[in-house]
Amino acid sequence: MRKYLIIIGMAFLAVACGTRSRSAALGDDALLDTVERYTLRYFTDFADAATGMARERDHDMNGNIVTVGGSGFGVMAIVAGGERGYYSKEEALVRLEKLTAFLERAERFHGAWAHWYDADTEKPFSFSKYDDGGDLVETAFMVQGLLAARQWLRRDGMPQGSAALADRMDALWRDVEWDWYTRGTDSLYWHWSKNWDWKMNHRISGYDETLITYVLAASSPTHPISRACYEASYKTSDYYDNGRSYFGITLPLGMDPYGGPLFFSHYSYLGLDPRGLTDGVTDYFQRNRAHTLIHYEYAKANPRGHKGLGENLWGFTSSDDWEMGYTSHHPGTPEENGTVSPTAAISSIVYTPEESMRVIRYLYDHDAFGPYGFYDAYNEAADPPVLTHYLAIDQGPEVVMIENYRSGLLWELFMSCPEVLAGLDKLGFSY
Question: Where are the alpha helices (DSSP H) in 116-249?
Fold first, then answer.
């Protein structure tokens, strides 16, 4: 701790003495440690005190709204902090127990949680008019975190009470009725509401952020789906296969053009280790690296001439915006307005360490770093260029992927789940 405080102090002294780069006094490991520590605070210091859940955002007009998917990312972040010694394992246990207790008492919909809950009433809060019930993808993000935490809590040398909490997390996982969300068809469906039934009618298909949903559904020891469901739904969308080349880089799977927002290469892979993961056709680490490098090359080419974009400033995904609110900024869309979302490059550090470190240093030197890590959006043509918002679904992947880059911890934990390995085997993956 004292070492990092001295190094950080040196960085600020360099700025005071007129040196442009305050990151220059920090080595890569020290800078990553600073980013991981600060960003983790979103899930500790800023977590809802009563439920332990992560708040959806820090500028929320809807009230005290907590998020299921973002809290699932936060579960893994809390594990990383406890393992790294940012706080004691006993403190991590307390935080995880509070969150688990809320998940146990929250209303569920055939085992799935809602996208949002009002933390003050602990009731589901509508994400949209017809989306007031179960959200299977957000549930998958939570279960990914719970399974990684379960494995951590079952390790030797953990505090008293860890094994019992792991068993409670296991019970929550077993209660999710993945097969019910097929509606008796060959597809998984994203939403169900007791008020609107299947009104949303959103089939989960195509290469996006949802691979983890099919992996967990196939892995379930209690309510599994078949491989035929995965083959007939997820893999048959018109935005699954790609095979085109962008800037000389071939993208096997994903949207045309450019592969879509970078969170497609993050959310499913916070626990699911893409290194060596293949279905015999696609190497998923190489696919995600290609997706990331395409964004990097797009920023260097900067076809729309936006101020600042280049090798030190790149990475496009959904985040807040000065004029449009929460929106996608990915290449090939009208919303690509020069806004870089820090989570895009930072959470890609496992795929592009050198390129991502350049963005981290650039943003750190351009006042885009605050009390909970990097702010949500940066655009050099905007006034001010930093949009000082925070969102759970953007902060969480940064912590988890930095930790995976540094130690592989969350990948190791999630991939130690025997059910997950069996599910991957069922779907035809090797790893």
Answer: 136-153, 162-174, 211-219, 227-232
